[in-house]
Write a structure and sequence with these properties.
alpha/beta, two-stranded antiparallel ribbon, 10 helices, 7 strands
């Protein structure tokens, strides 16, 4: 499964290790982004708990979660939350529309609950959608942007999903030849366009959280979790 941190997922990675604000780096073991775990997750449950990850946020729709239940939801020691984002559950018609679809994800009605859960979780959080690319990609981009990570690193993290999901996406495209492959691949242009639109609408993450109706303490709590000194927590 390549460089995935989980055996039951092919696109799981830590948001730690990125150069952030004030010379600090983003902390490891706070937030992991992923595609949906599948099959037996016993070994992954041990891995997650060993790394301090005990909250799971499932961003999939109720229909997606019912069709392919998250095996971590029934594992002892985990706090599982299904916070469904309907936006982004299907690819847009054209590649040019992907940034707008990501803006729709960012503005989804459930997003305040997502960021509250990320901020208030007592330990680390694994969040995932189906492929770990779009809905998880938007949340990841916002978190990294909030930590002061540069656009280049945010885009580089995003496009890792292209290789990690290669086999799955090729199978999807073979079954759906009508779909433009550029709408489902993690292309640099998609994240570049999203970051541009995000700044045009919100100015930055503080403005975004205000637009979501979140208190300033939520943003401060997220920054505290995201950032650490260069030589440790």
């Amino acid at each position: 499964m390549g460089n995935s941190l989980l055996i039951s997922a092919c696109n799981c990675r830590d948001l730690g290790g990125h150069q952030g604000a004030d010379g600090r780096i983003t902390a490891y073991g706070r937030f992991w982004r992923s595609d949906a775990p599948r099959g037996n997750a016993d070994a992954d449950a041990e891995t997650l708990l060993r790394h301090g990850m005990d909250t799971v946020i499932d961003l999939r729709t109720a229909e997606e979660a019912e069709k392919s239940p998250d095996p971590l939801a029934v594992q002892e020691g985990f706090r599982y939350r299904l916070l469904s984002v309907d936006e982004g559950s299907a690819p847009p018609a054209r590649a040019e529309d992907v940034p707008d679809s990501y803006m729709a994800i960012a503005a989804a009605a459930v997003m305040p609950d997502v960021y509250r859960c990320l901020a208030e979780a007592p330990r680390g959080v694994l969040f995932h959608c189906t492929a770990g690319k779009d809905r998880s990609g938007v949340v990841s981009a916002v978190l990294l942007l909030h930590a002061g990570v540069g656009d280049g690193e945010i885009i580089a993290d995003y496009v890792l999903s292209r290789e990690n999901n290669r086999e799955r996406l090729e199978a999807f495209l073979a079954a759906h030849p009508e779909v433009d492959r550029n709408t489902v691949l993690a292309r640099e242009e998609s994240m570049e366009g999203f970051l541009r639109l995000f700044r045009e609408r919100y100015g930055g993450t503080d403005g975004y959280f205000r637009a979501l109706g979140l208190p300033e303490e939520t943003g401060r709590a997220l920054r505290r979790k995201l950032l650490c000194k260069e030589n440790g927590f």
